[in-house]
Amino acid sequence: MKLKQTPILRLYKLETNKEDHAKFVKAGQHNMLTSQENEPGTLFMQTGHDEETTNFVVECYQDEASYDTHANSKQFKDFTDVAKDILTSRVKVELFPEFISTKAEKLAVTGSNDYVIYLTEIGVSLGKGDEFAHAVMKEMKTAVEEEKDILAMIAGTVADQPNEWLAIEVYRNNEAYKQHLETKNFKEYLNNTKYCVESKSLRKLQPDVIVDQGAIFYQP
Description:
10 strands; 8-stranded antiparallel beta barrel; globular; Alpha-Beta Plaits; 6 helices; alpha+beta
């Protein structure tokens, strides 16, 4: 699905107590799987953790109408009923989508799995935004097209902070990530952006749920 209008892209950082993590995951799983099944405009959702109390959720909707459908759904209301009692902290980050590409296969990943998500935060130097954008979009597009075990590449800039980038990358396993780092494409990206990047942080997430309608593509 090649998107012609700008989709909605958000990142949430949600904290729970350790003993509530399984309950949070179960509620999120029901919400995301049901949304994928019933809402064609709910394009991509994932939740993963780097610690048992820190959860990162990414959501992508085709448009405002699709988000409204989700926000008014029973499964989302069931999830919020659970979450309001167990979340100890909630941070929402609105993103302007810069690039989205997912494989054709439809994903519904739950339970114990070998999938890996990398969440990267990048601060781009003033005046280097266009140069960085060109390089990162080329790298991501090539990666999804040429590497069979890269399932999704998503990048966005933080609303009102165009030099702050977030990237979400989904790999079938960690070996696929290691192989990606050795590709000519990735090394060219590093070389082409070495004077663009002021700061960079990388988080490896263990996915709890990934749902993807498949074959999503967006580039402004």
